Amino acid sequence: MESITKMLVINSRDVLPSDIVIKLYESNADISIKETCFGVMVTGERKIVDEVLTKIRKMDPYGIFIKERGLAPGEKFRCRATRRGGARPGFHNLESEDKILPHIGSALRALDRGEIPELKKKIKKLDVDILKEIIKQELEAQS
What we know:
Blueprint: E1 3-10, H1 17-26, E2 31-35, E3 39-45, H2 46-57, E4 64-69, H3 91-112, H4 128-142
Antiparallel strand pairs: 1-3, 1-4, 2-3
């Protein structure tokens, strides 16, 4: 029996972490639940966690993001209490990921509606020889 921890990062206008926690408790699944500043962590047997989170993600498929966590909650390596405070390893990365989730959610929503973004036109880079000529002309104009 493999035990895993998955993080639910919530970036939703409609669903709160407390809503998810209530649904998790209502599932009566054999899991541990911990509410965090970014959402919820769920620990348990892989099969059970995956089944429960598949149902939870349906609450807002464009605002609930799930990723597997390498270590369980309370693991001494990550725990701030044993590390004497400060941000836990990975916190700043999660914080930066959280900022782009609204963009990812809207892109997923657009793809599901069948919207395909236009390819961006490649901007041709300025040739080095042309740049040198521009600099030469500017220097001559200043003298």
